[in-house]
Specification:
Number of strands: 22
CATH architecture: Sandwich
Structural class: alpha+beta
Largest sheet: 6 strands, antiparallel
Helix content: 10-25%
CATH superfamily: Jelly Rolls
CATH class: Mainly Beta
Order of helices and strands: HHEHHEEEEEEEEEHEHEHEEEEEEEEEHE
Mean pLDDT: 95
Radius of gyration: 23 Å
Strand order of the largest sheet: 1-19-16-21-14-13
CATH topology: Jelly Rolls
Shape: globular
Bound molecules: 1-hydroxynaphthalene-2-carboxylic acid
Low-confidence stretches: 355-361
């Protein structure tokens, strides 16, 4: 893609003069901005960043717990903002992340919105979320869904604080000017289904014979951590780790084999002790939440050391490697399913033994 043309001073002066008048009429010359509009490779505005849970995030969250109730706040959440996107409530260009606290005895009142949400449970055990009348009890490492336009409220009837990571497609929905939301008249939805109904009904690869998916979202609302660990362990027992990913799984909608929600993809991976990954980059900026273990991730020139409950973000098309000093389990989410559906998604691996080029059709 060529740069803006270099012209002799007379023509340049006349053009500059015209640009002012063009602007008054709602027009602009494409040739001055073509190369920044159609970039030869992604140059993300977002930057790599890490949030230290124990030392930084948790103390602030607990202070919020003293200062405002979950009901007053509607949702008591600290937004994790990308340092390069301040004021935009974005951790990547398309995604939002936050840490939500709900204290014993509290509720977060029922509402619904176009934005899809995932929860990844960080701390505490036994609080519930209700999604369209079904309650599920949440435990650390569980991956819980609130697909778009579902009524949802949360409650903590345990004696411990409960914290989870929220991931939403807020920037994407805002970008498309497609947001609708409403509050329910009742703070708490009546329980209309048996506990864990969706897992019992859809979690065993057995669907009612005439069941058809109503939309693109998974019929499951909770993917429990013990199931994730079982599959990661099974993989580890039978094969060496992938050079880039270690052992990496994607959560799926059992009805379609695709992502559980159409706008957000979610993943969980095991990095065995002393594993050092080969370099990797992909076009989906990705948010990582460490579940277990310690290690570090090198993103470009920057090194981020991490431990349990820490969160970090790798922007689109940034080379990175992961290293684990002990067995580590890491959850992640990104807009990969959106990019895949549109045919945009690309990845590149530094390990030359990788057998195929993802760009070939
Ligand atoms: C929301 O509904 C939740 O339901 C969390 O827990 C975070 C951020 C923005 C908009 C809606 C929740 C949210 C949110």
């Amino acid at each position: 893609m060529s740069e803006a043309p270099t012209l002799d001073p007379t023509r340049r002066a006349r053009l500059q003069q015209m640009y002012g008048s063009l602007s008054d009429h709602g027009m602009a010359p494409l040739w001055e901005s073509l190369h920044s509009l159609v970039k030869p490779t992604p140059r993300s505005q977002t930057v790599p960043a890490k949030w230290d849970y124990a030392r930084v995030v948790r103390p602030f969250l607990m202070e919020c717990g003293d200062l405002i109730t979950a009901k007053e706040a509607e949702r008591r959440v600290l937004i994790l903002e990308n340092p390069a996107l301040r004021g935009s409530a974005s951790i990547t260009r398309s995604l939002y992340a936050g840490l939500q606290l709900i204290l014993p005895g509290e509720i977060a009142p029922a509402h619904r919105h176009v934005q899809s949400a995932l929860r990844f449970i960080v701390e505490g055990k036994g609080a519930y979320t209700s999604v369209n009348g079904e309650r599920t009890i949440m435990k650390p490492g569980d991956f819980v869904l609130t697909p778009n336009w579902r009524w949802h409220d949360h409650g903590n009837e345990t004696s411990e604080p409960m914290v989870w990571l929220d991931g939403l497609d807020i920037p994407l929905v805002l970008f498309l000017d497609a947001s609708f939301a409403e509050r329910s008249t009742a703070d708490t939805q009546p329980v209309q289904k048996p506990a864990d109904d969706s897992r019992l009904q859809f979690g065993n690869n057995l669907f009612p014979v005439d069941w058809k998916p109503g939309d693109k979202n998974s019929p499951l609302i909770n993917y429990p951590y013990e199931r994730s660990c079982e599959t990661l362990d099974a993989m580890r027992r039978k094969q060496p780790p992938d050079l880039v990913h270690g052992y990496k799984l994607r959560y799926v909608n059992p009805a379609t084999g695709k992502s559980p929600m159409p706008t957000i993809g979610a993943f969980i991976q095991l990095l065995p002790a002393h594993f050092k990954s080969a370099g990797y980059r992909s076009t989906d900026g990705t948010v990582y939440a460490v579940v277990e273990g310690e290690g570090r991730t090198v993103i470009g020139e920057q090194t981020f050391t991490w431990g349990p409950k820490d969160i970090f973000v790798v922007p689109s098309w940034h080379w990175h490697t992961h290293e684990a000093s002990e067995d580590a389990v890491i959850f992640s989410f990104s807009d990969r399913p959106v990019q895949e559906d549109l045919g945009f998604w690309r990845e590149e691996r530094a390990d030359t033994s990788y057998p195929y080029d993802t760009r070939s059709t």
